[in-house]
Design brief:
Chain A has 189 residues and is mainly α. Chain A has helices spanning 4-7, 15-44, 47-52, 57-82, 86-116, 125-156, 162-187. Classes of the chains: A mainly alpha (189), B mainly alpha (117).
Chain lengths: 189, 117
């Protein structure tokens, strides 16, 4: 028996998918608030360009590449799910989850390097924003990976394939946030 | 699960990677307006491509788009409401002495490593 949340569609959108759109709407406000605050301070402080020059562009670019690639595998998993190919969807979700893990590992090495060079969350306001924004994003990546593994385990058995699309939408949003964090934190120097 | 015609996801992906390469290369020229366009302009284009082709926002009922756009408008409202206080050094009955000193020291080259000059 399927949960009623996945079978009702009063608004024209299945309720589970509608729920994830609401999650994303609230996430836009959360990340939007941080990004707008960062932008205000960045525009008003010329000194922040100097602080930003200590972030490593190629590391940010590598993580952008990883997230874009994981988004591709997430949407390919959705395509498999639409075609009823549960094992195929599971395989692609695992690739997406691996992308998430690579992202977190790269970020942990990057933070270790920065912290060891004296750039911590208390160094100044720029670094406070840097660690808060990137850290909150990384938590979303970790949450996405955990959910993705659960969905992949069910999809492999051909169960709850509609969830593949739901976690995919969430994952693309995580990718979207990074698309804006990357130029703000790594490129604008 | 939504049933719809799938775009060519690989083609979208290659475009996204090309745009990523441009957004990295553009700022290397050191020209401010080129940096703004290649970094932030391209970020908006990439975000649109992901939302349209990967998240399939365009095939959802229109109220979903309205819902998301409303949140983006809230972001702008937040910026407009708060920016005057955050971005100015002085106001009607307030002043930020530490900030003014920091900016003066930066302009004089006493702090910072010169990357922002």
């Amino acid at each position: 028996m399927r949960p009623i949340a996945n079978t009702r569609s009063v608004s024209g959108v299945p309720t589970a998918r509608l729920a994830v759109w609401w999650v994303i709407a609230s996430e836009i406000v959360i990340f939007g608030g941080i990004l707008m605050s960062y932008l205000m301070h960045r525009l008003a402080h010329g000194l922040w360009a100097d602080y930003a020059s200590h972030t490593t562009t190629w590391v940010g670019a590598l993580n952008t590449f990883v997230l874009l690639t994981s988004s591709l595998s997430a949407v390919l998993a959705h395509k498999c799910a639409v075609n009823g190919d549960g094992p195929g969807a599971a395989k692609r979700l695992l690739i997406t989850a691996a992308g998430g893990l690579i992202f977190v590992v790269v970020k942990s090495f990057e933070w270790t390097y920065e912290i060891s060079h004296g750039y911590t969350i208390t160094t100044n306001t720029f670094w406070s924003f840097y660690y808060t924004a990137a850290g909150l994003h990384a938590l979303h990546v970790i949450a996405g990976v955990v959910i993705m593994l659960i969905v992949a385990a069910a999809a492999k058995k051909g169960r709850d394939l509609h969830r593949v699309e739901i976690i995919g939408i969430y994952w693309h949003f995580v990718d979207l946030v990074w698309i804006f964090l990357f130029p703000l934190l790594y490129i604008a120097k | 699960m939504s049933e719809h015609a799938h775009p060519n996801y690989w083609k979208v992906y290659w475009w996204l990677l090309l745009l990523l390469a441009i957004s990295i290369a553009g700022p290397e020229l050191g020209i401010q307006w080129v940096t703004l366009i290649t970094a932030f302009g391209i970020a908006i284009v990439k975000a649109y491509m992901v939302a349209r082709n990967f998240m399939h926002v365009s095939i959802e009922p229109r109220f979903v788009t309205y819902m998301l756009v409303t949140m983006l408008v809230f972001m702008l409202l937040f910026f407009m409401a708060v920016a005057p206080d955050v971005m100015k050094e002085t106001g009607s009955n307030w002043v930020k002495p530490a900030w003014i000193q920091e900016n003066l020291a930066y302009e004089a080259g006493e702090i910072g490593d010169g990357a922002g000059h």
